[in-house]
Every structure is written in structure tokens, then in C-alpha cells.
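Input record, target 12 of the design panel.
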């Protein structure tokens, strides 16, 4: 079973994108190898849905976060090794010798760069294997660790007699044609399968170390995954990972209180809170560190959001119709009995106030009947909340307050229980002098 997140939700939460400013992938993308980056992207695109697998990964990453070790190879050094293994080798030693001898002649007569590149690649590879061997000595923990299984695989490969002999060549900076051909054939043919496994393990190491380092630097924590159906999300303190000094809020859902109806002024932090929750649950399903303290959650089927929905000129959709289609899609998933986190920010703001009130109330009341999901629905129409209080018993009412310092609004970003009574819109307009500008 896969974790469902559509393109709109990925964009709303800014989860992917190597070059997208502030993306969550970019935050964790501190790897040193191209293979590590590919693996990291693969992990981001495939959150887990098995609680045991999630907890196993979070335990592994937490272990590396505590270890706080540096990746033992430079990016340039590793690129040299990757390039070395990208060049082929013959299936038997005599043929390999002839190929290497041919490259040597061409290097002498034509200044062909392939022979010196082969020498350089082999030297770099031997250096990498020795560095890896030394690095793994730091994992001599007396008690079992989450890394033991992969550590044993790496140690088994490095203890292969042929590789042990190769490691002894760590002081050489050039090899004879015979040795160069022999070692090249050994690494690229005889031990090809083991070398491929070893490289994949190094890519994983790259990811573990990078993710752990980010988690430690940011003060992130790990979540505990519970089986699907437990109907719980508990977070002692949650903030947005892109905020250096983000204000943290507790969050709690269960089967009896599975919806938050959120009110507050513009700029009070409603959208940021919803994004923070969506990002945290997504990273929790990946087993990654997240911007929270002490999170427990039951596994979900996916996340569905409607935060930054825009109109579509190509499809001929108005903003309101685009909103309606998002709500319809969410309704289809929820009605199928799936367990989703659904985030709706300012429902139906693309239509008139009367329709927005009626539609928000009807849709929110209908979604509230589905106890297997978690919902956060925000709106400026506080009258909807007042009506919901009379018809539902599973909705938490929360708001983000505005505090007035004289005529200047200040935002605490701290959730409070209830429905906001803040109505500072006109005051902010007056503070900006818009009406005076128009009168004059």
C-alpha cells in the first residue's frame, strides 16, 4: 500500500524540488554523492505505511543523529571513484591486460587521457576503501544497534581476501600495467556484485549521516508510528521546519476529536500551522526527523490539502471552481473509507460571503461525520464555527489571536481554544492610510 499525496499537496507543503526555495527536500539534501541524492529523493517520493518499517528507519536515523559523524569522503574524491566504475572492463584478465596496455601506448603516443584516468581512478578507489574501513571502526558499539545489519554486509565485503590485499596498496600512487589490469579486472568483474552492494551501502551512509546532521542542527525529533486504525496524532510541540525561531504549538487528534476548526486573522499563522502539520505527518511517515517534540501518530493512507489553489486558464476554471474540484477529490477519498489528513485553508474564498458561509458549513459538517480521518479547516467566517458548535461533538475549535498594541496588530502564533472574535481588518486598512490616499 502506498502513501497518497497528489501534486497540489506536494506544492502546498513545498516538499520536493532540489532548486525550489525553502523546500523540505532541499533542507535535507546535504548529501555528498549523486547516488545519495538519488536515494534521498526516492525516500521523499515513497513515504512508508508500515509502522514497524517506519519505526525501524527512524531508529536508524536517530542512531546516526546521535553519532554525529562526518561523511568520510569528499564530493570530488567520490566522483573520481564513480567515474572509474563507470568505465568498463574485460571479462578475463588477458583481455583486460591488452586493453590497459593499449591505453598506455595511446597515452604515450597520442596523449590519450584514458590511461592516467584509469590510474587515478584505481588509486582513488583504494583510498576510498581504506577510508571506509577506518570509518567503520567507529561503530564498535558493545550493544546491538540499528546499523548492525548493514555494518556486517560492509565488513564482509571489505574482509574478502582479494580486497584485503588491495587495501595494502594504500601508499601507491601508480601501478604497473600488469597490476593495473589485474586490479581493474578484480574490481569491475570478479567482485562486481560486491562492489555494487558496497557502493549502495555508501550511498545509504551518505543519506543517514546527512539527515542525522540536519536533525541534530535543527533540534528535530522523531515520531513513534502506531498501527493504522488507532486514530491518533499527538504532538507536544509543533513548528514549521523552515522557521529558525518558529513558535511551537501542541496538537492532538483522536477518534473523538478528529477535526480542528481554525479561525484567526490574515497573517495570524493559520496557513503556516496547517503546512507545519502536513509536513510533520509526511516526514513522520518517512521515518525522518521533524520539527516537533514527542510525536505519536497512527499510520494514514495519505495527505490531501487545499491551501494554495489557483484558477486554471488552460482548463477554463475559475478560482471558485478549482476549489470545488479540490473538495470533491478529497470527498471521494474520504468516502472510500481511507484514513487521510485533510487540510482546507479558507474554503470557498472565491465566491460571495453568503455562498461561502453555506458551503463551508455544509462541507465541514459532512466531513466531520468521517471519524477515520483527521481534518484541519480554516476560515474567516467565524459564524460557521458558531453553527458547528451546535451540530457536532468531535470538532476542536481553535484560533490564532491578534493582539493590538494601540492601533498596531501583533500576532502571537500561539493556538488558543475557541473561536476568534478578532475583527481588525478595517483597522489595518485605516492604519495603512488607504482611504485617506483615495480621498486626497
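The sequence produced for target 12 reads:
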Amino acid at each position: 500500500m502506498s502513501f497518497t499525496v497528489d501534486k497540489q499537496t506536494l506544492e502546498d507543503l513545498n516538499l520536493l524540488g532540489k532548486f525550489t526555495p525553502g523546500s523540505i527536500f532541499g533542507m535535507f539534501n546535504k548529501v555528498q554523492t549523486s547516488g545519495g541524492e538519488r536515494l534521498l529523493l526516492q525516500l521523499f517520493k515513497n513515504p512508508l505505511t508500515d509502522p514497524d518499517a517506519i519505526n525501524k528507519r527512524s531508529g536508524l536515523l536517530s542512531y546516526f543523529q546521535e553519532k554525529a559523524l562526518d561523511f568520510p569522503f569528499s564530493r570530488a574524491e567520490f566522483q573520481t571513484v564513480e567515474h572509474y566504475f563507470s568505465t568498463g572492463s574485460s571479462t578475463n584478465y588477458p583481455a583486460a591486460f591488452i586493453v590497459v596496455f593499449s591505453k598506455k601506448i595511446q597515452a604515450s603516443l597520442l596523449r590519450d587521457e584514458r590511461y592516467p584516468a584509469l590510474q587515478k581512478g584505481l588509486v582513488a578507489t583504494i583510498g576510498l576503501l581504506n577510508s571506509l574501513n577506518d570509518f567503520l571502526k567507529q561503530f564498535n558499539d558493545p550493544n546491538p544497534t540499528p546499523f548492525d545489519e548493514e555494518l556486517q554486509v560492509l565488513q564482509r565485503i571489505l574482509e574478502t581476501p582479494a580486497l584485503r590485499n588491495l587495501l595494502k596498496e594504500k601508499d601507491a600512487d601508480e601501478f604497473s600495467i600488469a597490476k593495473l589490469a589485474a586490479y581493474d579486472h578484480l574490481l569491475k568483474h570478479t567482485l562486481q556484485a560486491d562492489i555494487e552492494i558496497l557502493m549502495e551501502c555508501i550511498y545509504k551512509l551518505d543519506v543517514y549521516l546527512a539527515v542525522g546532521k540536519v536533525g541534530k542542527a535543527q533540534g528535530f525529533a522523531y515520531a513513534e508510528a502506531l498501527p493504522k486504525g488507532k486514530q491518533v496524532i499527538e504532538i507536544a510541540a509543533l513548528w514549521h521546519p523552515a522557521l529558525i525561531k518558529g513558535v511551537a504549538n501542541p496538537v492532538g487528534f483522536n477518534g473523538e476529536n478528529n477535526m480542528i476548526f481554525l479561525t484567526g486573522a490574515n497573517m495570524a499563522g493559520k496557513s503556516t500551522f496547517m503546512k507545519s502539520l502536513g509536513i510533520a505527518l509526511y516526514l513522520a511517515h518517512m521515518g525522518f526527523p521533524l520539527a516537533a517534540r514527542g510525536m505519536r501518530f497512527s499510520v494514514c493512507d495519505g495527505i490531501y490539502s487545499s491551501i494554495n489553489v489557483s484558477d486554471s486558464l488552460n482548463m477554463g476554471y475559475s478560482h471558485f471552481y478549482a476549489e470545488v474540484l479540490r473538495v470533491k477529490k478529497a470527498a471521494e477519498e474520504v468516502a472510500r473509507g481511507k484514513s487521510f489528513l485533510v487540510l482546507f485553508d479558507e474554503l470557498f474564498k472565491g465566491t460571495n460571503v453568503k455562498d461561502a458561509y453555506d458551503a463551508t458549513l455544509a462541507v465541514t459538517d459532512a466531513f466531520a461525520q468521517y471519524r477515520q480521518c483527521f481534518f484541519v479547516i480554516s476560515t474567516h467566517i467565524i459564524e460557521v464555527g458558531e453553527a458547528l458548535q451546535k451540530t457536532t461533538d468531535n470538532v476542536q475549535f481553535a484560533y490564532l489571536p491578534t493582539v493590538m498594541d494601540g492601533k498596531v496588530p501583533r500576532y502571537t502564533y500561539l493556538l488558543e481554544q475557541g473561536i476568534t472574535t478578532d475583527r481588525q481588518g478595517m483597522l489595518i486598512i485605516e492604519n495603512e492610510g488607504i482611504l485617506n490616499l483615495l480621498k486626497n
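Confidence is low (pLDDT under 50) at residues 311-316.
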